[in-house]
């Protein structure tokens, strides 16, 4: 009898595993002129599964057999939302999705004062976003740039507990890591993980005082059936652009550029948010570039002087970052267990390279941003990045 029960249990486990077989959803999103649609939100909203398209419109994420009858939804600013069942998408030979442009005709009279619009968006930020603890699986990429070329790359696969843009990340853990060969002259170390700087540079998390900017509406558009106002705030050192829902006051996208008046640091950041099944927003994609300068040692200075790459004691340095949110989990019972980790630069965490993990994890397609940076790195000594991962880890 026990043997029969065991065999039945084994059969059920096998059937359950088979029923949850992983399926890759891959495709490309174009507009009616056959041009790529970048940063579109693609996913099964009812189950909080999805990803973001690259600058070339490509996307890739994993579902199981359970999701075959669910609807795949594609939304992007300026276009009508497209819906198709996962089954129908899989049965297509051509995995190209064409989005139709949505024209918006909001008059100046039809909206409230521009600054008041910003005030309402900030007032409703907590209500419009997931403001309780939720877990994000994040792919964090950072490139170290010296003399305007990438010389080092590191990538972390992370679990993060966030409370949304109206608050801060509460915990994070680095699950896997890999890095390139080391070609830097200057090891410019940050005093905490770069994900914390992602937070600190987000104006929503820091808090925007609307009086610090002069606001103007620059354009109308739409997102997922809602008209949106694109509003830009300007001051002496920065430009802040907010993409705000006309009816809901949801902030779907943020672009910020900080330019120093003379010498100093430069920063460009992009933050994209997408909806969960209740329509609340959470982070979907981020990239930024920080530029500054770094002092070189006398030995390095002599080398660079011979190569005519330096005229003083400093060379331009930069960090380039790219972040994909690969998964959202709102059920606290399913959160990963977290250990307290020390705050330090990404390169200082001692995490062994797990080739099996990186060969099997569902990574998003390579963005143009990624290709540009990796191309610079590979060109230094004509060593492919995969070879660098093996040799350096």
Outline:
This protein is an alpha+beta fold and 393 residues long. The protein contains ten helices and 17 strands.
Q: Could you explain how this protein is built, in words?
A:
- With 393 residues, this protein is α+β, with helices and mostly antiparallel strands.
- The chain has 2 domains: 22-99, Carboxypeptidase-like, regulatory domain (Immunoglobulin-like, Sandwich); 109-392, no CATH class.
- The protein contains 10 helices and 17 strands.
- The protein has helices spanning 2-19, 86-91, 114-123, 125-128, 194-200, 203-206, 298-306, 355-360, 368-379, 385-392; strands at residues 22-31, 41-44, 49-52, 58-64, 71-75, 82-85, 96-99, 134-146, 149-162, 171-179, 214-223, 226-234, 238-245, 251-258, 266-275, 281-295, 314-329.
- The strands form 3 sheets. The protein has a 10-stranded antiparallel β-sheet, sandwiched between helices. It has a 4-stranded antiparallel β-sheet with strand order 3-2-5-6.
- A hairpin with a 7-residue loop joins strand 14 (251-258) and strand 15 (266-275).
- The longest helix is centred in the first third of the chain and has 18 residues, at 2-19.
- The chain is globular and about 60 Å long.
- The model is unreliable at 12-19 (pLDDT under 50).
């Amino acid at each position: 009898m026990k043997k029969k029960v065991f065999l039945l249990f084994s059969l059920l486990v096998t059937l359950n595993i088979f029923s949850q077989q992983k399926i890759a959803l891959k495709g490309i999103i174009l507009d009616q002129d056959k041009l790529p649609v970048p940063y579109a939100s693609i996913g099964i909203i009812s189950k909080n599964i999805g990803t973001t398209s690259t600058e070339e419109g490509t996307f890739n994420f994993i579902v199981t057999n359970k999701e075959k009858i669910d609807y795949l939804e594609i939304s992007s600013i300026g276009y009508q939302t497209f819906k198709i069942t996962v089954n129908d998408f899989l049965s297509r030979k051509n995995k190209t999705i064409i989005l139709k442009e949505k024209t918006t005709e909001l008059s100046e009279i039809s909206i409230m004062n521009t600054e008041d619009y910003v005030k309402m968006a900030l007032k409703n930020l907590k209500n419009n976003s997931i403001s309780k603890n939720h877990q994000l699986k994040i792919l964090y990429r950072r490139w170290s740039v010296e003399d305007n070329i990438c010389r080092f790359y590191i990538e972390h696969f992370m679990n993060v507990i966030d409370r949304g843009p109206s608050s801060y990340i509460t915990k994070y853990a680095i699950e896997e890591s890999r890095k390139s060969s080391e070609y830097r002259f200057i090891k410019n170390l940050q005093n905490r993980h770069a994900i914390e700087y992602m937070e600190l540079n987000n104006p929503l998390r820091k808090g925007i005082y609307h009086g610090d900017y002069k606001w103007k509406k620059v354009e109308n558009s739409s997102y997922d059936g809602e008209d949106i106002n694109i509003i830009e705030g300007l001051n002496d050192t920065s430009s802040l652009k907010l993409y705000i829902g006309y009816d809901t006051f949801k902030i779907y996208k943020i672009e910020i550029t900080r330019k120093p008046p003379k010498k100093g640091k430069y920063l460009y950041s992009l933050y994209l948010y997408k909806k969960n099944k209740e329509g609340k927003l959470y982070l979907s994609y981020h990239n930024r570039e920080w530029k500054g300068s770094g002092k070189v040692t006398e030995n390095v200075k002599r080398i660079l002087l011979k190569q005519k790459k330096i005229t003083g004691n400093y060379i331009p340095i930069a960090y380039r970052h790219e972040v994909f949110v690969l998964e959202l989990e709102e059920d606290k019972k399913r959160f990963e267990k977290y250990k307290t980790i020390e705050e330090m630069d990404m390169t200082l965490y001692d995490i062994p390279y797990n080739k099996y993990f990186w060969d099997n994890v569902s990574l998003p397609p390579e963005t143009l941003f990624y290709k540009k940076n990796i191309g610079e790195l590979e060109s230094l000594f004509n060593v492919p990045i995969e070879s660098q991962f093996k040799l350096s880890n």
